[in-house]
Amino acid sequence: MNHSATLEQWLGYLEQLHPQAIALGLDRVDEVRRALAIKPAYPVIAVGGTNGKGSCCAMLEAVLLHAGYRVGCYTSPHFLHYNERVKVGGRAVDDAALCAAFARIEQARGDISLTYFEFGTLAAMLIFADAGIDAGILEVGLGGRLDAVNIFDADCAIVASVDLDHQSYLGDTREAIGFEKAGIYRGGRAAICADADPPHSLLAHAKTIGADLMLIDRDFGYVADTRQWRYWGPRAKRNGLPWPALRGRCQLANAAACITALDALRDRLPLTAADLRGGLLTAEIAGRFQVLPGRPLVVLDVAHNPQAARVLAANLAELPESKGGVVAVCGMLADKDIAGVIGALKTSFTRWHIADSTGPRGATANDLDAALRQAAVNAPVAHYSSVAAAWREACKNARDDDKIIVFGSFLTVAAVMHEQQLNRTG
Fold first, then answer.
1. What distance in Å separates the CA atoms of residue 303 and residue 310, rounded to the nearest whole number?
2. Torsion on CA atoms 281, 293, 82, 118, rounded to nearest 10
3. Which superfamily does CATH assign the domain made up of 7-282 to?
4. How high is the pLDDT of residue 164?
5. In terms of CATH, what superfamily is 290-425?
6. Strands 86-88, 91-92: parallel, antiparallel or unpaired by DSSP?
7. Sign of the C-alpha dihedral, residues 295, 292, 406, 224?
8. What's the pLDDT tens digit per position in 63-121?
9. For the chain, which residues score pLDDT lower than 50?
């Protein structure tokens, strides 16, 4: 690639560089890591899980930022701009930093083929090294054991949850998937699991490698009150904590896991009670039960597997009642458990706006309609050729006391975000 290439040109190049979009395995990317001499000198927190890992990353980042640390945070995927994936000091890095990192990787890799995600992971770590960060938060892209993030030994690792998703890569049982998730744990280091029913495979792997395993409801946990909650864990108890800014009761389990992780690292990253409270109150993450201001009420949620759909249903049930309807704007990928998602949400909506999703993995509105019929959903259903069209029609017909819920995939939420951006700038 030309050293004057734009970020858009680089990303187009990376997309076609490897014959497979996903190629699990660590040998290739670790060889390039060694060529680049990337070895973090700061504490690394790795975060995996079927659901909840993005929320955990957001809370960890917010608490550490509140404490005054210079934090690097690497997450995926992005919604509108690739830069969202790499943040330093709470801000997305600029195009120049990404392009410079990509150029260094391109020079170092020789004839080694890297995937889009592997390139991005190495780029994030180069940028973090240049920025002199105090702590790094790395979100696992897929699974854990063979994910590119796992070439870096985490000082502390969190598995937020274990459920069925990406079965073609990770296996079709919770036991198989649990083993893959547990691959980010390290012997002698804090290994945290916030799943209330951890697979035996996860427990066994942690024991085999000698990880310091801490389980929710056994080693740490929380007690929820109406306006506050209490944390208990191996190193401390904390009373009078504010509910996280991230919505949903499930966030208390995520927050408890984050506090346990930060306590495990407190010798290197000391915090105050005020830092914890401030971080919980300011943590933000797009597309996870994100409630937009104004009327009608709009919720954006990337829920795309049955576990996430069950959480979405529970969160919707806790919203204030109104006389209006609850309108679904839904698009999904064909390789997801569409029937499972629909089944979890079949009684949540008074109208469905279902859409074709773009790309080779996209499901059609007809696919969604078949799942709705199979689930015996009686609410009216309308088909659209795109998520944008479904969104526009939902907004056109919505009353102020309606609720519009956008869900089904990152691409679905991103399409609506793009529409909102166009409305603001147009």
1. 9
2. 50
3. Mur-like, catalytic domain (3.40.1190.10)
4. 76
5. Mur ligase, C-terminal domain (3.90.190.20)
6. antiparallel
7. negative
8. 999 999 999 999 999 999 999 999 999 999 999 999 999 999 999 999 999 999 999 99
9. none
